[in-house]
Specification:
423 residues, alpha/beta, Rossmann fold, 3 domains, 6-stranded parallel beta sheet, 16 helices, globular, EC 1.1.1.23, metal-binding, Ald_DH/histidinol_DH
C-alpha cells in the first residue's frame, strides 16, 4: 500500500515504522539458558544443543580432519569466489587501520599527549547456520579481526542435524583465519564465549549477527564481555526520485524481504508515479521469487514525501541497517543521512554487493541502533590508550589550574600530589 507522508511528526513516524520484534519478549528465557551455561559449562551447552538444535554433540570443537573433509567438498570455482571476496574485504578493512601504532604531539611546552593502539587478545565470532550456510558472514567477522592483529579468533556456528557444520561455512571460517571453530549455536554459544566453559574459551568481545535470541543473549552478557552491536532482522530504506528505476528498487526491497518475515523494506520517494511502478513491480517479482512465502510476510512500505530533505529526515528517524540512494543529485542526500548502518549510492549499488563482494562489511546495526552504533569495522577489535609525557616545565604551566580545580571538587590529596613537586 502506498501512503502520502506529509506530516513528519515523531509520534506518526513511531507508529508507522515500529519494529515487529522486541528483545525484552525473549529475555526471560535467554537469562535461564545463559545462567545455566555460566554455572555448568560444557554440560549445559550440550544440553541446549540437543534441546534446541536436536543434535547430540559429543565433541564441541571442529577437528582438523573435519575442516579438510569440508574443503574437499567445495569446488574450485567456489573457492575462487571466496578468495576474491577475501581479497576485497581485507583491502577495505586494512584502510581502516590507524596510520601509526603510537603517536605523540606537543600540545603545550613540556606536555606531549598521544595514543597507542592495541588489538584485543581473543575475540569470538558468531556465524548463523543450522540448516543454512552463511560463508559471507564468516568472512565479514574473522577478516577484520585478523587485519586488526587479534592473535586468537574463535568461532561458534550451529550444527546441522547430523552434527556437522555446513562445508561452505567451515571452509570460509578456515580461509578467513579462525583459530578454533565450535559446533554450537544460539544463546548457548553466546553464553559459552562470554563466560568460558571447559572447552570453549572466554573471549574479550563477541561479534556477529543472529536471531532475536542471539541478539538478546549478546545484550544480557555485556556484564562479562563486550559486544559489537545489536543485530536483528534485515532492513532497507530506498530514497528515490522520479528518475529512479522501479525494477531495481523492487528487486532490492524484495532481496531484504527474503531474509526473514520480520525484515523491513521501505521506499521513500518524491514521485507518486514511481511509487505506483514499484508497487506493481514488487508484485510481479515476488510471484517469481524462490522464497515467495517469506517475502510476502515481510514488512514493505512505500511512502511519498514532499521532497528529498523530508526523505532524509524520515530515514534518520528509522535509522535502518541499509540505505540506498537513487536520485539525480545523490551527494546532497548522502550528506543529510546521518543514521544508517551503510549507504549505497547509485542504481548499480545494490545491498547484495556489500553483502558479498565489494569489501565493505555487512554486519550492521538494525532495529534503530544505527543512531548510536557503528557497523563492523577493523577498529572494533582495537583498544586505544592515551599517553601523557609531561616534564617539569609542562606540569608547572598547568599546576595552578590542576590545584584550583582539585580543591573546588574537594580532592585535597590530588592538589597536594602536584604541589609537592614544587615545594
Amino acid at each position: 500500500m502506498i501512503r502520502q507522508l506529509s506530516n513528519i511528526d515523531e509520534d506518526v513516524l513511531k507508529e508507522l515504522f515500529k519494529r515487529r520484534t522486541s528483545i525484552e519478549s525473549v529475555m526471560g528465557s535467554v537469562k535461564l539458558v545463559a545462567d545455566d551455561v555460566r554455572s555448568n559449562g560444557d554440560a549445559a551447552v550440550k544440553k541446549y544443543t540437543k534441546q534446541f538444535d536436536g543434535v547430540d554433540i559429543e565433541s564441541l570443537e571442529v577437528t582438523e580432519d573435519e575442516i579438510y573433509n569440508a574443503e574437499e567438498l567445495i569446488d574450485y570455482e567456489t573457492i575462487g569466489h571466496l578468495e576474491a571476496a577475501i581479497e576485497n574485504i581485507q583491502a577495505f578493512h586494512a584502510l581502516q587501520l590507524p596510520s601509526t601504532e603510537t603517536w605523540l604531539t606537543e600540545i603545550y611546552p613540556g606536555i606531549r599527549l598521544g595514543q597507542k593502539y592495541t588489538p584485543l587478545s581473543r575475540i569470538g565470532a558468531y556465524v548463523p547456520g543450522g540448516m543454512g550456510s552463511y560463508p559471507s558472514s564468516a568472512l565479514m567477522l574473522v577478516i577484520p579481526a585478523r587485519v586488526a592483529g587479534v592473535p586468537e579468533v574463535i568461532a561458534c556456528t550451529p550444527p546441522r542435524k547430523d552434527g556437522s557444520i555446513h562445508p561452505l561455512t567451515l571452509t570460509a571460517l578456515d580461509m578467513a583465519g579462525a583459530d578454533r571453530i565450535f559446533k554450537v549455536g544460539g544463546v548457548q554459544a553466546i553464553s559459552a564465549m562470554a563466560y568460558g566453559t571447559g572447552t570453549i574459551p572466554k573471549v574479550e568481545k563477541i561479534v556477529g549477527p543472529g536471531n532475536i535470541y542471539v541478539t538478546a543473549a549478546k545484550m544480557y552478557v555485556r556484564d562479562s564481555v563486550e559486544i559489537d552491536m545489536p543485530a536483528g532482522p534485515s532492513e532497507i530504506v530506498v530514497i528515490a526520485d522520479e528518475g529512479a528505476n522501479p525494477v531495481f528498487i523492487a528487486a532490492d526491497m524484495i532481496a531484504q524481504g527474503e531474509h526473514d518475515v520480520n525484515a523491513m523494506s521501505i521506499l521513500l520517494t518524491t514521485s507518486r508515479l514511481l511509487a505506483d511502478a514499484v508497487e506493481n513491480e514488487i508484485a510481479v517479482q515476488t510471484a517469481k521469487a524462490a522464497r515467495k512465502e517469506i517475502i510476502e510476510k515481510a514488512s514493505k512500505g512505500i511512502y511519498v514525501v514532499k521532497d528529498l530533505e523530508s526523505a532524509a529526515e524520515v530515514c534518520n528517524f528509522i535509522a535502518p541497517e541499509h540505505v540506498e540512494i537513487m536520485v539525480r543529485d545523490p551527494l546532497s542526500v548522502l550528506n543529510r543521512v546521518k543514521n544508517a548502518g551503510t549507504v549505497y549510492v547509485g542504481e548499480y549499488a545494490p545491498v547484495a554487493a556489500g553483502d558479498y563482494a565489494s569489501g565493505a562489511n555487512h554486519v550492521l546495526p538494525t532495529g534503530g541502533y544505527a543512531k548510536t552504533f557503528s557497523g563492523m569495522n577493523t577498529m572494533q577489535f582495537i583498544k586505544t590508550t592515551s599517553i601523557q609525557v609531561i616534564d617539569r616545565e609542562g606540569l608547572e604551566g598547568i599546576k595552578d589550574t590542576i590545584i584550583a580545580l582539585a580543591n573546588i571538587e574537594g580532592f585535597d590529596a590530588h592538589a597536594r600530589s602536584v604541589a609537592k613537586r614544587f615545594e
